[in-house]
Design brief:
The protein has 7 helices and 5 strands; from the N terminus they run αββααβαββααα. It has 226 residues and is an alpha+beta fold.
Length: 226
Amino acid sequence: MQSPDPQGLSQIMFEESLDANLHQVAKLAVRNVEGADFAGITLIREGRPTTAVFTDPASPQIDATQYETGEGPCLDAFRENSIFSVEDTGRETRWPAFAKTAADHGVLSTLSLPLTAGPGALGALNLYSKTLKGFVDEDEAAMFAVQAAIVLSNAQAFWATQQLATDLEVALESRAVIEQAKGIIIGARRCSSDAAFDLLVQQSQHENRKLREVAAEIVRLASNPE
C-alpha cells in the first residue's frame, strides 16, 4: 500500500481551511450586499480557474461557461484587476455565452470584483442577482472583495512560510543521510570524501534515482546487512 504524500495532504488541508474562510466571506457578502442572491469566488488552482467556494450550486454551473470559453466577467476581473458588471444578462454582448447561461439560471445581473493584493489580483469575487441592475453600490461589494483578498493573501503567505520550513527540513535530512552514506563508502573503499560523493552521484545517475534515495538505501543496507 502506497504511503500518503505528506506534502499533498498538507496542500489539501491548507485549501480546505482557506476555502472555509473564503466561504464565510462569500456568505457575508450575500447577506450584506444589496441585490446579491448568491456568490462565488474564482481562484486559479493547478493552472486552471475554478470556483473554489460558492453559496449556491448555480454559481459553479454558470462559471463553467466562462472557464470553457475563456471569456467572462470574473475572468476579466481577475486578468485586468478591474470591476466588471452586467446590468442585464438578456442584453449583454461582451460575453454572450456567459450571459445566456446566467439568464438560463434566472440570473439577470452580475458583479465581478478582483481580489487585489499588491500589484495584481489573486482571484475574483462574483455576485449574482435575480433582478435587473441588481447592484447599485459597487463600493459596498468592494469591501467584501478586499476582505477576501486579505484572507487569501495571508493564507498564501502562511503556506509559503510553512513550505519553506518543510523544504529546509527535507534538505537537512537529505544532507544527513548523504553524509552517512559517504562515511560508509569511505570505510569500504578507503577513498576520499569527494570520491565517495562522486560514486553516489554516479550511482544516482545510472539508476535514475534521487541522490537521497540512493544514499538512504546504502545506509539501510549497511545497518541491516542480512
